[in-house]
Amino acid sequence: MTTRIAFIGGGNMATSLAGGLIAGGIEPAAITIAEPDSDKRSALSRQFSVNTTADNLETLQHDVVVLSVKPQLMQTVCKQLADSATNTNPLYVSIAAGIRTVDISRWLQRDAAIVRCMPNTPALIQCGATALYANPHVDAAQKQLADDILRAAGITTWVTDEGLLDVVTALSGSGPAYFFLLMEAMQKTAVNLGLDSDTASTLTLQTALGAARMANESGVNAGELRARVTSKGGTTAAAIASFEHDDFHDSVRKALHAAYNRSRELADELGKDN
Fold this sequence. Notes:
Elements: E1 5-8, H1 12-23, E2 31-34, H2 38-48, E3 51-53, E4 64-67, H3 71-82, E5 91-94, H4 101-108, E6 113-118, E7 128-134, H5 140-150, E8 154-158, H6 164-173, H7 175-192, H8 197-217, H9 222-228, H10 235-245, H11 248-270
Parallel strand pairs: 1-2, 1-4, 2-3, 4-5, 5-6, 7-8
Antiparallel strand pairs: 6-7
Helix pairs in contact: 3-4, 6-11, 7-8
């Protein structure tokens, strides 16, 4: 029996997941995307040959409902679903940052099976990192189904404590921006030292890509890899010494703590009833 998957919200993340699922062998006819914008619906239909609708309630006839709306809209959408006359009980997969499963359940007015996910933006190119949490109403088959859906956009990992998703948010959810910031600073400095902008950009991007691949594929931890390329008295050692003089590790620690604390604050704010 074909699993039917619906998305509420036809934004970038839903588009990426739908495209990844279809590339992985899911029939387009098994996917429905609910999107209020008619132009977006037409574009999605042309691009993927999926079903589209303007009515969120049609998604309740599916096995999985992926809640891919902005966090600020989640309460409205869930209450709309709760008010519908339906006996269906789909798996809900939330990719809305900061919305806790207990709040989703309260808005849906039922003990729903909910998987909450924290993806990151590289998921848009099927290179994402997503952590997932399943509430107690999710069975093993549903957990595997949620994993299959999010793996269409990259790697997945599970946490058993929902509170750890705030740590994930600080690490991988916001993490791409940290690397972009470092890359931006490297490019600007290289230009100030005399390289043209295109060359500085090309070398920075390839260096970042190569370092990530080495860290991912070598089986060696990042600290050891850093040590291997840091010759005593060399240029890399001089740069590392400068970073350490400015307490680079403490700067990173403070940044992740700031993101972690803000994630918890947002969850409290977004979880309030309107």
